[in-house]
Amino acid sequence: STSSPSTSTSSTHFARRCFSSESAPARKVAVLGAAGGIGQPLALLMKLNPLVSSLSLYDIAGTPGVAADVSHINTRSEVAGYMGEAQLAQALDGCDLVIIPAGVPRKPGMTRDDLFNINAGIVKTLCTAIAKYCPHALVNMISNPVNSTVPIAAEIFKKAGTYDEKRLFGVTTLDVVRARTFFAGKANVNVADVNVPVVGGHAGITILPLFSQAAPKGSNLSDEEITALTKRTQDGGTEVVEAKAGKGSATLSMAYAGAVFADACLKGLNGVPDIVECSYVQSNITDIPFFASKVRLGKNGVEEILGLGPMSDFEKEGLEKLKPELLSSIEKGVKFANQ
Ligand code: NAI
């Protein structure tokens, strides 16, 4: 006796859906710079994410050790380590999502823009390979200065003919994480309930937290307190750089933030509705071509760029002040990519 093919196919699907503990679709995620200060804890957090089926850890050195270590954790994903440019193709092949924390971090006294010369070259190399080996992957750019590295990536992808503005993201989640934490502390509300949009860019005054839209409301906060919270959010990275006194910048909180954003991207790819995160993307909600704001994530990456919403006079002023710096960082990136 033979059962009809359609029955056997659908029952196989049904069985897979109901009885597999790994019902989420297969997703390959690469971390480029995986042996670094951010890369290692980010590799750990991605290994803990059940949406990942294959975790690809790439760096110019140190990845075999990180990969062997992380691979012993008894969670879903297979883990492979790749070292050196000769293995970059394999690391990227078939990726759904590529996270880039490769590059040098700040030391005390440095701005993110001081990293430009080294990191711009690294990002260029990595994005050239992404265009070749996984042109449809979502790209989460962590390497600083994000205000410039995202436009660099866009230009590299344009040259390769693979650019899709819906798939390129500057990771600004750490600014949101900080704004939530600092706000909850001042407003005396439960940090787990707090959300604060952060818009603009990812450096100094280009980081614009919209505390007037914080939920739950911090109605007890004075203008002076809002000004201080804004400044602390903008300088959060520098706070860590100084505390680490020459040993680098935020790595653990950044890995957490990177893992939160990557998880949101994967949920979007998998069709989970209403996934909204702030991110620095190609945008036309202002007259600046790349801009961070709330973005709805979906099967193709950016599903919708949400508007800025109602802002206080203080925030409107901050928005006008950040535009020239953000625009010049973008132009610097575009120029570098085209030279
Ligand atoms: P790190 O120096 O500890 O690690 C960087 C890693 O990148 C190293 O393992 C290095 O070998 C690797 N690397 C260098 N060149 C590479 C290449 N061509 N291909 C692949 N890997 C390469 O630095 P850390 O602390 O992990 O920071 C990494 C980047 O993330 C920095 O640019 C930093 O400014 C940025 N960052 C961004 C944040 C954000 O909010 N977007 C927050 C904190 C840091």
UniProtKB/TrEMBL annotation:
The keyword Oxidoreductase applies. Residues 28-170 form the Lactate/malate dehydrogenase N-terminal domain. Keywords: NAD, Oxidoreductase, Tricarboxylic acid cycle. Gene3D superfamilies: Lactate dehydrogenase/glycoside hydrolase, family 4, C-terminal, NAD(P)-binding Rossmann-like Domain. The lineage of its organism: Eukaryota, Viridiplantae, Streptophyta, Embryophyta, Tracheophyta. This is Malate dehydrogenase. Homodimer. PANTHER family: MALATE AND LACTATE DEHYDROGENASE, MALATE DEHYDROGENASE. Residues 172-336 form the Lactate/malate dehydrogenase C-terminal domain. The keyword Iron-sulfur does not apply. InterPro entries: L-lactate/malate_DH, Lactate/malate_DH_C, Lactate/malate_DH_N, Lactate_DH/Glyco_Ohase_4_C, Malate_DH_AS, Malate_DH_type1, NAD(P)-bd_dom_sf. It is an enzyme of class 1 (oxidoreductase). The active site is at residue 202. Substrate binds at residues 106, 112, 144, 178. It catalyses: (S)-malate + NAD(+) = oxaloacetate + NADH + H(+). GO terms for molecular function: L-malate dehydrogenase (NAD+) activity. Pfam families: Ldh_1_C (PF02866), Ldh_1_N (PF00056). Transmembrane segments: none annotated. PROSITE patterns: MDH. Belongs to the LDH/MDH superfamily. MDH type 1 family.
